[in-house]
Each structure stands twice: as structure tokens, then as C-alpha cells.
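Worked example

This section walks through a single chain of length 425. The input is the sequence exactly as stored; nothing has been trimmed or padded.
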Amino acid sequence: MGASRSSKSNGASKWFNLGRGLGSWRRVSSCTHKDQRRCDCKIEARFYDAITGKQRHKVFLTKQDMERFLAANYQERLKRQGMPVVSPEGDMPTFEQYANQWLDGKEELRPNSRRQYMSALRTYAFPAFGDKPINKITKIDIERLKTEMYEKGVYEGTVKTLIKFVLGPIFRQAVEDGWRADNPADRQKTRKVPTADRYIPSVEEIHKIADCINPFFRVAIYLMAGAGLREGEMLGFSRDCILEDSLWIYRQWTHSGSWGPLKYFEEGEGRHVPLSNLLREELERHIETYNIPPNGVLFPSDVIPDLPVNNSSFDRELKKAVIRAGLEDKAITAHNFRHAFATYMVQKVDVATVSKMLGHKSVQTTYKTYIKSIPPAWARAAAVAQDYLTYGTSAQATKDRESRIQDLLAELTALGVQVTINEAV
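Given that input, the structure is written out below as C-alpha cells.
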């Protein structure tokens, strides 16, 4: 710990705010470094004392000394206010211990997100600093991990997920719990995630794959390509989803082998999708061929018939069908069929309606994803503006003018006036 002193003014240094309730810090007045976040000069902290409640200033030799002191002061403040405090039995937890505890407490996470977060932690973060105490990890550690991931060719989206949605919240929680004074993952810049155009299978290719796949999954192709269902929604489809002229989609079968609500929906909520004649015929044929009972799932498991097959079973059959169809170079997965459906629909139907059919979080998501497929509206807008304040459409306006001219000629003829029409005019 460094010696303490009072310091009321220091115009040369900038205060850096820490987490809520922890206080703020800056380098001492003698520091002349441009980047004061990284220099080794003494640190002056400003905080509210846990015992007196008054604001105090204290100087520390190192940032680590400051973090330990402010964390202890913050926990003491919470205790005196009667608030729950996470206090260890023994030493400061390692990052791996704390990260696992944080992930276990995120009950609201969807299974896919939980699996993705844990995979990123085990593959990248734990090997890098999993055994370090939670309060010993610095911004340099995060930047080094980020650089190594990019150098290894890790996908930009994976790096962003780890930094922004995993490490950031973990350290933010550590600050709130009083384990450390700052968030080293805060303000970490990541590369822009590239957006590659997903292949859109043609109608002929869709039918060809449906013909080549295991007949048990034939209707699965049409549920995705003909109604825009996601893979999990397709696997979770049951007979009670079939209405008179539409489909009611209200649940999905997750990768973890359990039922879940639709993406962006709460339990029990759902969406309607139009039911085409082709899809109805395929559904009826499948139900009759495989003796699907009322309310039964369309793709029952051999082990537990009341539950669907897993994703990997369908993915294997789809991969085989794509190869049989001679389309292995097209990188076609289950989502490509939903994408084909959406791409066609936005060319014929307004974006807001398509967004509801797809179950997107917002119409902006649909617009951003399929903007290239939406027909240019400028020409149509120009035609509408041209017709506005005229007698109907342009063709109708011309017809009306010709009709009025003929009426005028008839009136003049009745009055004995001879009129000559110059066709060239």
C-alpha cells in the first residue's frame, strides 16, 4: 500500500471512473506521461470511505494496490448497508473459477448461447489466463489474447463474442462484486465481422435435394424452403401446428435435446405462416406414410418416439442429399432453405409482413439482411407521383382526355361547326 495524503486539485491529470460505488483514479500531479493509463507513476484514488461515508483521496504505488484497497472498501460499504456481499472463503478466485460461477448463474441464457460462451472460454480464455486471480488480469492480457486469436485466423465473430459478450460481462460482475476496481475488457476494439452472402438455392435445386434426401426428411426441406422455418422449428414441428390455411409455429427442438421457445419469443408465444398447397400435400403424405399420431412430432426419434430426432441426424442426411444432388460445392446447410424462402418473399410481399412470418426480432433485421433482394422502389414511386392528381393512372388519364375531346367534337358538330383534326398534332 502507498502512503495516504489529501489532494483536492490536480488539473493536469484526468480522472478515470471505475465501477459504480468504487470511485475514480488518476496519476499524481508529477506524472507527465501522455498515456496515463499505462505508465508506472503513482496513482491517486478518490472514493467514499466505508466507515465515515466521506469522500477521501489516497495515493498508491501501484494499480494493483489501489484495486485491492478499493475492492475491500466497497465490500465493507455493502456490508454496512445490509446488502449481500460475495466474499471468498480463502484466496481470491481465479478467472476460471469466477467465470464458471458467472456462467452457472446466467439462467436466462439460451442453450445455444451457453454452449457457445463455454466453448470460447475453454478454447481461448482459460488457456490464456484461467489460473490467474480475477483481479490480476489487465487490459494488456485481453489485448494479447485478442491479437493471438486474430493471428491464428479465428473468425472475427468469435473474437467479438468472447470480448464483448463473455469477458466484458464477467469482469463487469467482478467489479460489482468488489473483486476488482475496473473492467479490462471495457472499450476493447474488435474487427468488423465480415458478412458473406449466403448461397440461395434455386427452386430446381430445392426440389432436387428433396428428391435425393432420405424420404423421412423430404417434408423437412419443404417446411424450411416453403414456410421459412429454422432447423430447430422444423424438427419441433408437430401435427397440431397445421391449421386450416396456415401453420402455427410455437416451439423449437434445441441442439441440447430439449424443448425451447422460439427465438426472440417467450414461452407459449408463436407466429403464423401461410400454408401452400404443395406443402399441405407433402405434410399429408408424410403423416400418412409414417403414421404420425394426432399432435405427434413429424420426425420422431427411434429411442423416444414422443420426441424429435436430434439436429445432427438431420444434418448428416442433408449433407448426403446435397452430395447426391451434385451441389456439394454450394455450401448448402439447413438455413439456406429458410434464406431462399425469405429472399423470394421480400420481392413479392412488404418487408413488415415477411419479418413477422420469419419471426425476426424487428423489421430492421429483415431489411438489413435482405435489402439486396428488395426490388428498387424508386421507379414505382416515380410512377405513383406521375399519376397523382390526375384522372387515375396515366393510361386512364389519356383515355379520359380522348373521351372529353370526342364529346366536344360531337357538341360542335351538332351546332353545325366543322372541325378538322390534324393527326400530326
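What to look for: The chain has a mean pLDDT of 84.
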